[in-house]
């Protein structure tokens, strides 16, 4: 498998854009929440779950998707949304609760929806999987080659929705791909203490027509490779695939998480394996991309993120009238 150079560059610039977006959101979310942490204060109220470090899971598969393919995401959705080409300005505005947001500020960080690219946050703990099954069934009934991808955390693979959805998808050979992002923690519980199987891709053996693949060490190239095969199978009517990727959550389960469950040196050790830094080296050495072009890509990604945050901060605050628009009582 050879990754086309333009795809390799897209993966890099998108990972960088995701990282910039999450870094800026970490700062914005922290505004007005100290010295005593108050979840309701600041320009971005509510819970916040950031995906810093988990970028390869999103770009590796979204590199193979089109606007006609469906993606459902859980409560940690920003990297998936950016990789699926959700409107970045409207996404930032939605998180800030502004009327210019994707849902006019009513949904916030955990309820991002962009019908233009068939992206939605389907809820926590595997709640988005049945939605993806519905999209996959619709594609099959319409005789389209569309694919439905559902991103979940490793803990969600222990929920009934995961197994019920795979049973139906396998039985009907639906074009469904479930991406399990194994960051080793379900909130504060390590996978080893909650899951009686080494990796969730092995669960594919329990269902007819379902394939499984495992991606080690947060590797963008391997994620691209296994995703290419999964998307090919789905488009050709060969059935679903479970992909589990070993990925790394650099931040807590939520912003404000004291992370008492982690070893002191755990995160610094993980950051030494930063996939963005490794992929930058890959661009230079394997794709012969110049340092100047890489710098331009980074500048473009940063500019897009800065513009999105500027748009969000300068957008109109919601009023009582706007809050009641599109609300049915």
TrEMBL record:
GO BP terms in the entry: pyruvate decarboxylation to acetyl-CoA
Gene Ontology MF terms: pyruvate dehydrogenase (acetyl-transferring) activity
Superkingdom, natural source: Bacteria
Cofactor names: thiamine diphosphate
Domain named Dehydrogenase E1 component: residues: 46-319
Keyword list, A-Z: Oxidoreductase, Pyruvate, Thiamine pyrophosphate
PANTHER family linked to this entry: PYRUVATE DEHYDROGENASE E1 COMPONENT SUBUNIT ALPHA (PTHR11516:SF60), PYRUVATE DEHYDROGENASE E1 COMPONENT, ALPHA SUBUNIT BACTERIAL AND ORGANELLAR (PTHR11516)
Name of the molecule in the record: Pyruvate dehydrogenase (Acetyl-transferring) E1 component subunit alpha
